[in-house]
Design a protein that fits this description.
By secondary structure, the protein is of the alpha/beta class. Helix content is 45%, strand content 12%. The chain has 16 helices and ten strands. A five-stranded mixed beta sheet has the order 1-10-9-7-8, with helices on both faces. A five-stranded parallel beta sheet has the order 3-2-4-5-6, with helices on both faces. Helix 1 crosses helix 10, helix 3 crosses helix 8 and helix 9 packs across helix 14. The model has no long low-confidence stretch (mean pLDDT 94).
């Protein structure tokens, strides 16, 4: 993974190389703290040791009874689903992967109607084993299997913590079960059982994913000028300090669109604390050159655009044409056009004085994805250290969970009482209609 921060220098808002050189002493201190946390397996910092501590053999043993299914549906939410989805969406496989990470009944019912339930593996993931959305969806899926005459106990894989409802369920029915790694928040768990089980079911090389993560580990150092991950984390932090409070992540590969969703959770949930943070926005090149780029280039000067692309990809030739004004396309390729679009966007942003950073990987494969995902995690942790926020907690999320649980009768929570105090000012199109 390479990170080019040149177009973040001297922009509005922007930083100078001298600014980053001054910041580098703090990066060295932050790296020492991160390394110490990793060495002592501290909560959160243990995430950055996963390329070495994750056990691919245990994952393969757990999924072996299912053979090569026609489909796998992961029932989880947030970090329990997005990491696995990033890998499955980026890598081709004959095994279809689906994700129930929302409790929208229309979506759930539509998916269950289409799934080949007799040849589908249900991968239910929750660290606590008490996540309301996950357990509700799992109960619905289980009932659908029973109605279809499918033995759900023969089609279910559980990934959870040492205790809780899911662990008891797995023990009761002797289900294959994987342990969620201790000390690893869900959004940092892609390089573990949480993110790799689906990849294994799909036949991907999970050892290569972990090897890519180790490449990212090896690249960490005490200077942002020697570490791509730290270069990104330090530059984004410095830009945020100067007013770039939106970070638009814009991959130029359809296969990396879900990576943008994964990054958005990682960045928002980790860094949005104490009135600080940088709001992630999701875009896709070249599609969103025709929608969002107008705002990024000509809107308020409060944005950073992160451009992500693979250097190598499959290509498709563009047929020759005699259509007026389009002859220049003939003889080139879709890949060349996409590269031109990328270069044009990068230059357009720079010309408009908008800071942008280029992240490049060699190609979209297991090893490069492992390095990219690890690098973004390390960048997040570094940003958190520089900003002095509690990177690995999510108190605002927990507030909402308690409120929802209280509303459903799952306990007495003052957060639920606050819902009744909502102020209303309703403007209705039905007013005055008979």
């Amino acid at each position: 993974m390479d990170v080019d921060i040149g177009n973040a220098l001297g922009t509005t808002p922007g930083v100078t190389e001298e600014t980053l050189e001054r910041l580098d002493d703090r990066v060295a201190d932050a790296h020492a703290r991160i390394a110490d946390g990793m060495a002592n397996d501290e909560f959160g910092y243990a995430s950055l040791t996963l390329p070495e501590t994750a056990d691919p053999d245990a994952i393969r043993t757990a999924v072996e009874p299912f053979g090569r299914p026609e489909a796998v549906v992961t029932v989880g939410i947030g970090g329990s689903a997005l990491g696995a989805a990033t890998l499955s969406e980026a890598l081709d496989s004959p095994v279809d992967a689906y994700y129930l990470d929302n409790v929208d009944p229309d979506h759930v019912e539509a998916l269950l109607e289409d799934l080949p339930l007799a040849d589908t593996v249900v991968n239910v993931v929750s660290n606590s084993g008490t996540t309301a959305e996950t357990l509700a969806n799992f109960l619905v899926v289980r009932e659908a299997m029973e109605t279809a005459g499918v033995d759900w106990t023969e089609r279910t894989l559980v990934t959870t913590g040492e205790s809780g409802n899911l662990r008891r369920l797995a023990d009761q029915h002797d289900l294959p079960a994987l342990d969620v790694p201790e000390g690893v928040p869900g959004r940092f768990s892609v390089l573990s059982t949480v993110g790799l089980a689906v990849a294994a079911l799909q036949g991907h090389d999970i050892e290569a994913v972990l090897a890519g993560g180790r490449d990212g580990m090896d690249a960490l150092s005490g200077s942002l000028f020697d570490s791509p991950a730290y270069a990104y984390g330090a530059t984004t932090y410095a830009l945020a300090q100067r007013g770039a409070l939106t970070n638009a992540i814009m991959p130029y590969a359809e296969s990396l669109e879900t990576f943008g969703e994964w990054f958005a959770q990682l960045w928002a949930e980790s860094l949005g604390k104490d009135g600080l943070g940088q709001t992630p926005a999701r875009a896709l090149g070249a599609t969103d050159q025709h929608s969002q780029l107008q705002l990024y280039r000509a809107g308020p000067p409060d944005k950073l655009v992160t451009l992500v692309r693979p250097r190598e990809r499959r290509d498709t030739a563009i047929p020759e044409t005699d259509l007026e004004g389009l002859a220049y396309l003939g003889g080139s390729s879709l890949g060349e056009l996409l590269d031109a679009e990328f270069a044009a966007t990068e230059a357009s942003l720079a010309a408009a004085d908008v800071p942008n950073v280029r992240i490049e990987i060699d190609r979209v494969d297991e090893r490069n994805l492992g390095e990219l995902l690890y690098g973004m995690e390390a960048a997040t942790v570094l940003y958190g250290e520089l900003a002095s926020v509690s990177t690995f907690t999510q108190p605002a999320v927990e507030w909402g969970k308690k409120a929802a649980r209280g509303l459903l009768g799952g306990g007495d929570f003052p957060e639920a009482d606050a819902v009744a105090d909502k102020r209303e000012l309703v403007v209705s199109a039905d007013a005055g209609r008979e």
